């Protein structure tokens, strides 16, 4: 990932990661935690793992398994309406007509990761499926996430639902100058 330095030059910035998650209702916290750990570990031992946020569908905002992952990694849990996730359909690597027919978007995990990462976000781990749960990872920088938060009225966080500024303050990743 690149960012603009104070003097206008481009400099490399350590990317922030957004873990997009989808699940069936009532999925166990252990299944979600195991999936999150597995997907993040799959980045490799030398990969910087700076998780900035967990993201999902707004209908899953109270799912214990998703809340457990956010608590485990101590990051904000961001949720989006299905229509907002579907705006990411052109950037999905594994769109699903079945999911679209049921939920109203072509992918929850990938769509949520990309929606939270903002337009500069890149899908670096496509959807992984395990026991009724899905996970995907997008990389971005904190500035892109902050701009997305300000522009997108559907961006929500159960950890601090009252204002965008507190959500941006909760995002922490390297290279966010």
UniProtKB/TrEMBL annotation:
InterPro entries: CbiG_hydrolase, CobE/GbiG_C, CobE/GbiG_C_sf. Gene3D superfamilies: CobE/GbiG C-terminal domain (3.30.420.180). This is CobE/GbiG C-terminal domain-containing protein. Residues 17-138 form the CobE/GbiG C-terminal domain. It comes from Xaviernesmea oryzae. One of its GO terms (biological process) is cobalamin biosynthetic process.
